[in-house]
Structure formats: structure tokens, C-alpha cells
Automatic annotation (TrEMBL), chain A:
This is L-serine deaminase. PANTHER family: ACT DOMAIN-CONTAINING PROTEIN, THREONINE DEHYDRATASE, MITOCHONDRIAL-RELATED. The lineage of its organism: Eukaryota, Metazoa, Ecdysozoa, Arthropoda, Hexapoda. It comes from the Eukaryota. Its cofactor is pyridoxal 5'-phosphate. It comes from Bombyx mori. The keyword Lyase applies.
TrEMBL record, chain B:
CDD domains: Thr-dehyd (cd01562). GO terms for molecular function: L-serine ammonia-lyase activity; threonine deaminase activity. InterPro entries: Ser/Thr_Dehydratase, TrpB-like_PALP, TrpB-like_PALP_sf. It comes from Bombyx mori. This is L-serine deaminase. Residues 34-320 form the Tryptophan synthase beta chain-like PALP domain. Keywords: Lyase, Pyridoxal phosphate. GO terms for biological process: isoleucine biosynthetic process; L-serine catabolic process; L-threonine catabolic process. Belongs to the serine/threonine dehydratase family. Its cofactor is pyridoxal 5'-phosphate.
Amino acid sequence: MSTLGESPAVLAKRKHVKNNIWCPKTNVEDDPWCDPDNPKMISYKDTVKATSVIKEHIAKTPLNRSKCCVQFNMELYYKFETVHRTGSFLERAALYSLSMLDDEQRAAGVITASLGNWGLALAYHGQRLNVPVTVVIPYTDKCKVILRYQNYGANIIQHGKDLSEAIRKAFIIKSERQNLTYINGYDHPHVIAASGSIALEILEQLPQTDVVLVPVGGGGLIAGIATVAKKLKPEIKIYGIEPKKCCSFFKAMENDNPFQTVVGATVAELLAVPKAGFNAFYTARSLIDKMVLVEDNWISRAILHLTEEEKMVTEGAGATALSAFFATPIILPELKGKTVVCVVSGGNTDYFTLCRNIERAKAIEGRLIKMRLTLICETASHEHACVVKRIMDSMFLDYKFSEDPYNPIQSCVCFPNPMLY
Amino acid sequence: MSVDIEFDENCDPNNPRKIKYDDILAASRRIVGAVVRTPCTRAHMSERLGMDIYFKQEFLQYTGSFKERGVRNALISLSDEQKKNGVIAASTGNHGAALSYHSTQLGIPCIVVVPIHTALNKVNKCEQLGAKVFKHGIDMSAAKLHAMSLGKEKKMIYINGYDHPDVLAGQGSIGIEIIEQLPNVDAVLIPVGGGSLLTGIGISVKHLKPDTEIYGVETDKTCSMVESLRKNERIHLDIDSTIAEGLAVNVVGTNTFYNIKGLVDKIVVVKEDWVARAIMHIVEEERFVVEGAGAVAVAAIMAGLFPNLKGKKVVCIISGGNIDVTILARALERGMAAEGRLVKFKVTVHDRPGGMAELCTLLTNSGITIRDCVPERAWVKGDVFSAQVKVIAETRGWEHTKELIEQIKKHYKDYFFQEICDRPDRPSVGTRRGPCLAPNPVCMQK
């Protein structure tokens, strides 16, 4: 179903929300680039322009064949966007949107709200192009993130528990300092156009692509890729993969309009965008062939697979596209034997998250089991028992003594032979 | 007349083979198409380390390591009868996997003998790639002995993974690729186990661009080549467990030892802790998963062992990526601890409602992340109402850790900080994150 949109006459008569005297609420979140009443559709030409601007500074990212094509029963390729300096594809968008600012805007600075990757990319390129950058991120427990922002000289503010609150705060700051430019990381037309450059590269490197799997957060990436891919090769299929716990784009497709959703905590934390982007939705809704929802467990397994087999470190969001193939039961049987490209969008994960995902994936695959052993030790005296306990303390993290210290029950983790798929 | 089991005609100490550049050129032609021509890309950590570092990404090969090149060349060069009988090898993993993969591709029967304590995933890998795997021996020497006797029995050719002349020629193809991809390279840093990479790349690079500096890197636990060169004869080194398993070769190869003289500018030895830190930095900054052996070159640069290369174009050979994920996790943890970003300490708090909450609030307000917080009630000196809480926390660096210690000192009387770095003699490089690590800034004993 596709409409021609509102007629120009209707649009001309549309009045903006008037300030009611009784409720003088001003809409703080007023972004001229991402107006819900006036969504912009990105065209192929915009993408080509974006590509030519960023080509000098950003090298083509590798498109590697998977080592496990036989296992997956298809010609699987990965587009690794993890090799960028700040570790995600958003560098392309950051460079392009900053390049498109005029000198006055550059001197004044930009502000944005981000879950992590977008702000980092903007900070890095802002430092290179001498543009002051302010980033508002939701409260995070990751020390490393703050450190990285500081390394790139960005002004960082933590506020709010999810992206919506951070966006709101960013707009409040912008209303106080009028000359800042707000750049939406998943919906700004320049961001979408620059993301399309990935599709240009994919089709150059692998013209015989049948399907492209794209992770979806706010929708910027898939909008850009879909625009280009469908223009260059109309029979190509574009699938959007979203985590079940934060499926704002999926819900927007169902509802035919983006709306505010509640996002849960998920492995793919950088896709936790509560409200899908308007421009992205408008651009992509008739171009996406299928939206797929995936469980967190499958994402963990995908992270483990990419670490072990392809030797690449990815974050949850990056592994989301591949996770569709780790679903049980199989959810995409129609892809057997086809040439499939998974976009691995980013690799910014910290040590704890990575280890926890790996452990969880191993447990799911049956490669990690937990055993409880009861050891009955006879000790010479109370002091001896204390010594034994101290030894246990240093050897095993997780153990319990029952009431008397003469019957310790240890619980340790062991690694049996891996389960064959 | 008893035949010496250990006698391998290709690696005879009395008749060492000289490898020529022509052999390497021929090898590189033979393996084209079957082996990945790996990219040599600039590293993001170049600025931080003060030189132009390029990574030759050999972990992108199908079995995850560079060994495929030598193996493919050796297999193609066998006579028809030798191909029918099959090949055998003793290997800790990478060579075995490469041999299994290519012999299956070429239709040659293959047996791999591994030491008993080899990691599970390596054994399974060889089996899945089509070889028969036998487990024998506590270390490589014992496994090798068994493999050679088995080989003589079944008339299979023993392919030495680091000493067979065809294998050496195959590894040299990396050198040709480096010069093609980066014509003005200044130095190449190569991990050294048995010496095949060093020899092969050394010969090819020195032939094509004689002013390039060739450096070998070993860890302090696997320094068989350094010791051998020092004593001017091949010595046997006992190797315990090491993070760089790919370099754990007890005796270096005959042919490699013979060919190396005059080729290598220097071989350096780096401590194992630096290897763990290098793995962590590569994971964080480059987002590649590398094994210990693959990270030693970067570790040597990070440890400040190459001050003469500042500002130069340096290629590090990332020889492989086959690391067990458990060991990866441990290496990351070690790396974090060595950088001062992981702190372990014990504090005695009041065991009343709010006691632990107070501690946690204090920690959170300092901006650190608590990863583990385990209370222990009995076996604590002091009054019955106190509990000792063991905390594992993540900080931003040494400075932040020092602040944390100040905070704890102010609010609590009874605390104990784990010794994090206990090697005051280690040379350190001033990283952007903080001052030198040598004197223990966080070691406090109660």
C-alpha cells in the first residue's frame, strides 16, 4: 500500500500547534530536520552526494565471506563496519553531517543525544574538523565510554534512563543556547544519506547479492541502505532485524506511524531507540521486504560465533543481523542457498559485556554446564577448617557451606565437549 | 640396524637446507587462490604508540592462522605416491588445523598428533576439517616422537610445521605480499616460535628491500630461539603453560636456525603480561580477536622494546586468531587489571541494614562500576556485627583508582587492596592514560 501523501493544498492549510493560553506548553523537541508533519524522503541522489563527500576520508570497509557458509547453508558475507576508528558505521554519517554545516554553525557547535556510537563518531570527527561537540547520553555504568568521549574532547552530559529523556535534555540545553545545531543520529536526512553509502559499497564488492540483512534501531541505517539497494538492483531483498525487546520500528510499521514505545534492557543496547525516526520510516516503509524480531539469546550466540569463527569483536547491535540465523526453530528458511550480506554495524563493547555474552551463549549451546559437588572433608580442628575454607575461597568464587563448616558444597563450572549442531 | 625414529630427512641437523628467494617466489605462485591474500591495514593505535603501525591480518585465513601458506605449498610439492600414503604431523593446533583443511581439499589422508592437554576446541577443529586426531604425550616433544614413529610405520610423510623447507618457502610469501602492499615499509615485527615465519619473511623481504629491519619477538616463557642464538646451538627449552601457545616450541628448527644467521636484526623477549594487555588493546581498539602468539609483536611495541622505531612504518604480523574464548576472557581481565582499570579489594563494613548500601553508594558516587560484591560474615576478625565485603570494581584508570583508595581510606578503617602489579622492574611506556606502572601505586597492605 503506498499513498501519494498529502496534497499540497492540504499541507499549505495545515497550521502548526498554536500556543494555548491556558496551557502554554512549547514543544521543546522542535527539530526542523525531523518534523513529524513533514517527513523527508531520502533519494538516491542524496546518497551519491554523501558518498562522494566522505570517500576521501573513510576507506571502504571489508566485505568478507563467512567461513561457515556450509553450516548456514547459504553464501553468507559480512560487511564489517567495525573497522572504523570509533568502531561503528555512524562515522560515515558523522563526517557527512559535519561537512554539510556552514562555517557559522561549525564555530557554534553541535549537540546531540546518543546511546553511544553516534556521539562518539560525532566527537571524533568534530575534533578533526574543529567543531565543538556536546553529547547527552543516558546514565551509563561504563567508565570506558566516558573516557573515550573525553579523549576526543567532547563535552559529555549524562541524563535520563533511556534515549527519549536524553533527547529531551539535549533540546532543553539547545533552547538555552540557541546557536547550537541539533543533529539527530538516526533520523537526520544527512545521516540516512551517508548510511546509504554502505549499500553502494556492498553492490560494488558483491554484485550478485540477493538479500541484505540490516539491524534496525532508529531506522537510519536501513532507510539509507534500502534506498540505494532498491534503486540499483530492484529485485534485491532488504530485511530489517530488530530485537524483540526494543522493536520500535517494527511497531511503527504495524501502526503506520512512529510512536513512543517502551524499550526494555537488551543485549543490543545501542538499538534501544524508543521512537523510530520519521524520515527513516517514511523513506523505508515501502522498501523493506520483511521485519524480523529476534530474541536476546540468539544475539548472544551470534556474538560468540563472530568472536570464535570470524575473529571479529562485535557489539550486540552489530551481531543482530546474524542472530536471525541462530533462531530455533529456523525463521528464515527462504534464504537457503541465496547470497546474503549481513551488515555488522559496530563493535564497541566492553570487556564485561563481551564476557557475559560469551558465557551466556556457551550455556545456551550446552557447552557450559554447572555442577554441584558435595565434598565431605574431615578436618583436624576448627582452625584447620578455617584454612580449608580460605583455600576454597581462593579457588572457587561461588560456594556455600551448610551450617557446620565440615560439609562444604562447591559449585564450579566445567567445559564438556561442544554440542554438535 | 636400528633406524632413528626422530630422523626427518627434511630437517636433518647434519644437512640443513638453504632456502632461496626463488623457492619462496615459486611457493607464492603455487598457493595463489587457495590461500587468502590478507589485507595489511593501518592500526588505530598508531598515534598512541608513536609509530605508523600496520597489521598483516593473517587471522583472516580460513583456519585462522598463517600456517596455511606453508602447508599448502608442502602438500602441492609432494609426489603422487607420497600423496596417496598421506601426511602426519604433531601440532598444538594451528598447524594441525591448516594441514587437516588443505589435505582434505587435496584428497590426501592426514593424521594429527596433539599433546594431551590441548584445548578442546582445537582438537575438534581438526576433526571437523577431516583429519584423524590422536592424543599422546605431555608436551610437543613427546607428541612429535609418537607422530614420527607412527609415520614411519604407515609410510606417511611427516610435515614439520616450522622446519620443513617447503613450509618455510610458503611462509615467505607473506613477505612478498607485504612489499607489494606497502612498498616503503621500514621494519617488520614477527612472532617467533619455531622460526618458520621469521626465516621465510626475512629472506623474502631482505631480497626485495634489503634496508628493511627484521625483528623477531618471543615471550619470556617461550624464548627458545633467543637462547639458541645465544649459545649458538639449538637447545631444548622446557615450556610450561603460556598464553602464546602458538610459540610454544621446545627446540627451534634446524633449517630455520641455519637460515636465520645474518638475516635478523634483533630478537626481543616480551613478558607475558604485556601479551595479555596487547590482546585487550587489540580487542578494544581494532576489534579483532587475536591469539597470544599473534599479539606478541604489538605487545613488544607497547612494552617500549622498540624505541628506535618511533615514527617509522612498522608491519606487525598478526599470525593468528585461534584463541579459546575462556582464555580470551582471562587475557582481557589481566589486561584491565594491569592498566589499573580493574580493582579488587576487601573492606569491613557494619553488618547492619544499610551498611553495605552505604559502601555501594560511596563507590557509585566515585563513578566506578561495581562488578562483584560478595559479603563474608564468619571468619572475620572484629566484632560480630561486621562483615568483610569483597569487591571487584571497574575504574577509568590509575588516577581514578587512587581517588577510590582515598575515599575508602577516609570512610573505613579496615581495608585491603590487592597487589595489582607486582613486577617493579618492568619497563613501561608512558601511555596516554596515566603515568608509569612500575612502582606499585595501589599496593597497600593492612
